[in-house]
Structures are given as structure tokens and as C-alpha cells.
Write a structure and sequence with these properties.
Distance between the termini: 43 Å
CATH superfamily: NAD(P)-binding Rossmann-like Domain
Number of domains: 1
Strand content: 5-15%
CATH architecture: 3-Layer(aba) Sandwich
Structural class: alpha/beta
Shape: globular
Bound molecules: ligand 0WD
Order of helices and strands: EHEHEHEHHEHEHHE
Strand order of the largest sheet: 3-2-1-4-5-6-7
CATH class: Alpha Beta
Length: about 260
């Protein structure tokens, strides 16, 4: 039998075919998972619908801007109505204003700081709360993080601080949801050229440094992140929770 046969997973954070969430969806789909997708607003609906209809027809598509408690509530309500339960949740969402990434970190505005925290870290907590009652047979929650949470990396700034909060949230959530059989983990991916990466200055030179210094001497392929998410979603990882797993060609170990 396939690894994900009979499992239902909600994927949040597909913006286009380059999105890490889409690579994760492909890995899960290839191993038999039934998928639903949320998209942020009408801006992205057409794009996500095209992708899903072409490659995973029949998957549910639900609007959900994570800055809105009402939209989170109604999205999970829809899942409850259609599926009755949920086995996996993939949270692949982050946002910071470009002016807060461009300016020195000490100049971060109060607004920009709060917005980055709200969308990139708090949204995981809000979605975990909504998913918990649906994960009746236990479940797996996965989020996406980056090394800038623990090291000062050029231009990552306010997003690094948001990722630190996200990773700490993973640990608190794992501790509290563990007794229900719900596991919570983060994947720390190496840099990948996506829409979100466009906001980070000098992304090309970041990719270059990885090619030169990572033990595997190449950048991270989104499919590798997808397959690690597949492992974390499946029962193969049943003993793992509260962890940050690096999928970065080993870059993070280098001094
Ligand atoms: O190098 C990279 N690309 C890495 C990304 C390395 C390590 C981690 N990550 C993380 C990101 O920080 C993010 O958490 O992976 C996650 C996914 O990012 P991605 O796949 O690189 O980027 P993208 O395809 O842009 O998906 C992120 C999406 C948004 O896209 P845009 O670019 O339109 O802001 O997050 C979604 C949106 O679809 N998003 C929201 N969804 C619901 N409500 C919201 C919101 N308010 N804001 C952003």
C-alpha cells in the first residue's frame, strides 16, 4: 500500500508552481494522500485552481487569508463538513513588507514587525488550534522555516525574528498536542527561488554561497523538501515531534 493511502492533508501556502507547498503537495499526492488546498484571496484563486485542476483534479480548494480568524474558522469548518477529520496540515506561509527587509533591522517599524509575526508565526498557532479537533486519530502538522531564525543572515532581518518565534511555537505546540497524538515539526529548507524569495535582496549570491559551501555542493531542490514533508506526514516519522529538520544539503553545519 502507498505511504499516504487513506490520509487527508490540508496544504496552506500554494501561490504558484514554484511554491514549496506545491512541491510538498506533489510528494504527498504521489504517495496516495487526499489533498485540500487553501489560497490567499482572489488574487491567487485562478492560479491555484489551474494548477490543482491540471495535476490533482478533485482536490478541495478553499479561500483562507490567515490574518482573518473568520476565514481560518470557515476554512476548517469546510474541511470538517467535507472530510469529518484531518490527518495532516502543511503550513507554508510567511510574509514581511519589503521595506522591512530592505532597511537595517533596527529600523523595523512596529507595524512591520507585528505583521511579520502575525502572518509568519502566529498563523501556525491559529491553524493548529483549528486543526486539533479534526485530528481525531492523531495527526501531523508541518511548517516551513529558515536558518535565519538562529543565525544573523544578511537581509533576512524581521523574518529571522519571526522564524525564531515560529520554531519556538512548534515546540510549545508539540508539547501540548503530543498527548492527542498530534505531532508538530518544522522543515528548515535551504534557499529556493520562489515568489517569497524575491523579497530577499541578493538572493543570487545567497544561492552561490550555498553551492560553494554546502557539503552537497548544490542548492536545495524543492522536491527534496517535498519528500521530507512526506516522511514527516507519514507514520514513518511517528516518533518525531517538536523538531526542526534541515533540508539544506548540510549547509547549516558549516562554520
Ligand atoms: O528560500 C525559500 N524560498 C525558503 C522559504 C527557505 C526556507 C523557508 N521558506 C519558507 C517561507 O518563509 C514560507 O514560510 O517556506 C514557506 C513557503 O514559501 P515559498 O514557497 O518560498 O514562497 P511562496 O510561493 O511565495 O509562498 C508563500 C505564500 C504566499 O505567497 P506570496 O508570495 O503571494 O506572499 O504564503 C502565502 C501566500 O500564498 N501567504 C498567505 N496565505 C494566507 N494568508 C498570506 C496570508 N495572509 N500571506 C502570504
Amino acid at each position: 500500500a502507498k505511504l499516504m493511502e487513506g490520509k487527508r492533508v490540508l496544504i496552506m501556502g500554494v501561490a504558484n508552481k514554484r511554491s514549496i507547498a506545491w512541491a510538498i503537495a506533489k510528494s504527498l499526492h504521489n504517495h496516495g494522500a487526499e489533498l485540500a488546498f487553501t489560497y490567499q484571496g482572489e488574487r491567487l484563486e485562478r492560479k491555484v485552481r489551474e494548477l490543482v485542476d491540471a495535476e490533482m483534479p478533485g482536490s478541495m480548494l478553499i479561500e483562507c487569508d490567515v490574518t482573518s480568524d473568520e476565514q481560518i474558522q470557515s476554512a476548517f469548518h469546510k474541511i470538517e463538513e467535507e472530510w469529518g477529520s484531518l490527518d495532516g496540515l502543511v503550513h507554508s506561509i510567511a510574509f514581511a513588507k519589503s521595506e522591512d527587509l530592505d532597511a537595517p533591522f533596527y529600523q523595523t517599524s512596529r507595524d512591520g514587525y507585528a505583521l511579520a509575526q502575525d502572518i509568519s508565526a502566529y498563523s501556525l498557532v491559529a491553524c493548529a488550534k483549528a486543526a486539533k479537533p479534526l485530528m481525531k486519530n492523531g495527526g501531523s502538522i508541518i511548517t516551513m522555516t529558515y536558518l535565519g531564525s538562529e543565525r544573523v543572515l544578511p537581509n533576512y532581518n524581521v523574518m529571522g525574528v519571526a522564524k525564531a518565534a515560529l520554531e519556538a511555537s512548534v515546540r510549545y505546540l508539540a508539547s501540548e498536542l503530543g498527548p492527542e497524538g498530534i505531532r508538530v515539526n518544522a522543515i528548515s529548507a535551504g534557499p529556493i527561488r520562489t515568489l517569497a524569495a524575491k523579497g530577499v535582496k541578493d538572493f543570487n549570491s545567497i544561492l552561490h554561497v550555498v553551492e560553494e559551501r554546502a557539503p552537497l555542493r548544490r542548492t536545495t531542490d524543492p522536491a527534496e523538501v517535498g519528500d521530507t514533508a512526506l516522511f514527516l506526514c507519514s507514520d514513518l516519522s511517528r516518533g518525531i515531534t517538536g523538531e526542526v529538520i534541515f533540508v539544506d544539503g548540510g549547509f547549516n553545519i558549516m562554520g
